[in-house]
Design a protein that fits this description.
Number of strands: 8
Order of helices and strands: EEEEEEEE
Number of helices: 0
Radius of gyration: 16 Å
Oligomer: single chain
Structural class: mainly beta
Distance between the termini: 12 Å
Strand content: over 45%
Strand order of the largest sheet: 1-2-3-4-5
Length: 126
Amino acid sequence: MAPDIEYLEDGFYYETTLEELPAFSRNAHTKTVQKTTNYKNAEGNVMWSLTLKATFTYNNSSAKCTYVTGNAQSVNSHWKVSSKSFQKSGSTATGSATVKQLMNGKVIKTTTKKISIHCSPTGKIS
């Protein structure tokens, strides 16, 4: 699946990918999915990233997120992850991170990014 690009006014942009991971369960109605958002500068260098991984079960009438995990990490020393959280509710998994941009040790910008994964009763991931 091609990355989704969200351009920002300051020249930075979010590049988000969604992929279905190999199934280790024998249950045919189980999917494990990973979504990763990279925050990049105009040159395409990653400043920080947010990854959400979730497992879903579905049966044509309903779907449920059974497991969620994730991570947020800074790749550039001018950015620092100050908080991150990952949760599930019904058929949706959500991850968020708050990241601070530093200059000379002082915070000059705070950004919060939220991503989510949804599973339909038929197993369609979005």
